[in-house]
Amino acid sequence: MNARYNSWLQCFAGCDERYGLDEIIYRCRKCNSLLEVRHDLQALAGTGPEEWKSRFSERWRAVSGPDASGVWAKKEWVCPNVADENIVSLHEGYTPLLKINSPFDNLELNNLSVKLCGNTHTGSFKDLGLTVLVSMVRQMRAAGRDIPAVACASTGDTSAALAAYCARAGLPCIVFLPEGKITPAQLVQPLANNALTLAIDTDFDGCMELVQRVTTNENIYLANSMNSLRVEGQKTVAVEIVQQLNWEVPDWVVIPGGNLGNVSALGLGFDMMLRLGLIDHLPRICCAQSERANPLYRSYLKDFERFEPVKAGKTLASAIQIGNPVSISKAIKTLKDTGGIVEQVSEQQIVDACAATDREGLFTCPHTGVALGALRKLAEEEIVAPDDNVVVISTAHGLKFSRFKTDYHWGQQEQLDNPRANPPIRVKDSYDAVLAAINDRIRRH
């Protein structure tokens, strides 16, 4: 632990109730609002912005120890309360920021990059939050706290990350999954890491209700994004983006939104850099949702005057098929602070965006397709200008959603067009037949 810096939990709603990071608490005892991690910014400001930039850049070169993690290399900003020996890391973070050409016909996007958060150990950005949460649990258990297990509700990626980090730490893990609503690749990850995997006949919102009851009554530690420690790890994405842009702030950051923890997390990361002088303004944030799971978008249309949960419909973007997001209040604050907007996309727009971007060499998950589809709409409406610097957050690796890909290219996505389908060509065992197929493709390329 670094005694020079300190962090604590504080009521998000502003009633100023404070709690220690080692307390098992997820909502304010006074007003029942969500909590958030607060840092001693005065202590952090004792180090100047250029020194922070230099430290973070130097640590990026580390090959071992805490600094080999993109999260723990920013430990002073994330969770200084954890001793190094209790850090549970799988070298998460430090993911590529890949500049690509505009994938959309007749639309100029001259400064478009994709932050590949799925290029990490379990294949999604959830690793960033779970390394912090599981490390804190390990710290609390080392201090004698009775925490029999760690649990989460999940649409697939959180369960995979939690199971991996708990396995790494030697902690019992329980995951609540909606039966039949996640991909086989996502399901097998917690199984392989020996988590108790409960397939429940409900949707994510039903799993979330159950896990909250279990963790409240049984002292099992909750690992969903209503636990503010998750957000602390995920906010490092914002720092990495700016660092990879040579400390320049993008004009836009487009984030797919389900439970909405990532929207508030990146907002906190940008806000912290602003407060400590590393940047001089905030980017605009766009939260992108599927038309079939769009409660935030509906609230946005009413200027966020009220929020009403919805029953999420089945969408190809299964990880954000959430109708009652836990982090709604935090996300709305982030959008207001950044002059942000919310956009929605159809299933056809999701598959079109993924297929177009894959032609740039990516292997795009459907949730990233939601963000890209929203960006396309914003560019068509000239809300995003051709020369705006835009970063799209890719939340997971496409290999987790291989059925989504094969169904597209084999024409098996019902009621959806697939103009960029590229199925294998059956060819006879003949040199002439092979050469004819090759020449035909070259002519059409």
Describe what you observe in this structure.
The chain has 445 residues and is an alpha/beta fold. It has a domain at 97-123 and 231-409: 3-Layer(aba) Sandwich (Rossmann fold). It is 38% helix and 14% strand. The chain has 16 helices and 13 strands. Strands 4-5-13-10-11-12 form a 6-stranded mixed beta sheet, with helices on both faces. It has a 4-stranded parallel beta sheet with strand order 8-7-6-9, with helices on both faces. The longest helix has 17 residues, at 126-142. The relative contact order is 0.12.
Order of strands, main sheet, comes to 4-5-13-10-11-12
- Globally, the shape reads globular
- End-to-end CA span: 58 Å
The secondary-structure element order is EEEHHHEEHEHEHEHEHHEHEHHEHHEHH
* Helix content bin: 25-40%
